[in-house]
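look at this fold:
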Amino acid sequence: MRRGRIFARLREGWAYDEIAAHERLTAERVRQIVRKALEKRIIDEEAEHAKLQLARLQPAMRLAGEAIADGDVAAIAPLMKVLDRLDRYQRAAKAVQVYDDEARRKLMDKINRVAANLGVDEGVPSGGGEAAALAGARATGEA
């Protein structure tokens, strides 16, 4: 529950010390919780990580832009910092990604893990690949 709130706030652009204050923890403890959760995850490819970071930076950019629009010149430096990071992550997010057999296999593995976590019936034939999976989904009315 707490971990979910922490990650939700991180996605909204909150700083560790702000999260810590709301959770009545130290900023270091929040970092430990995040680090521990991330160590358990399968590391996303660079492009996926960049997309996550882009989403996290959007609220900061909006707030800095609003502050500048309201005449707060002190918000210019933070906005420039956010824009610099946005540029860096956009380059990584736009990296040309090859959709070959390996990428297709990784996608299917990820879908299968999600299905297993959700307890989805494994009655779909595995030998036919994507076409068989789609046919199985259509037969059960899921497509």
In short: The CA atoms of residues 47 and 94 lie 7 Å apart. The helical segments are 2-11, 16-23, 27-40, 46-69, 76-93, 101-118, 129-139.
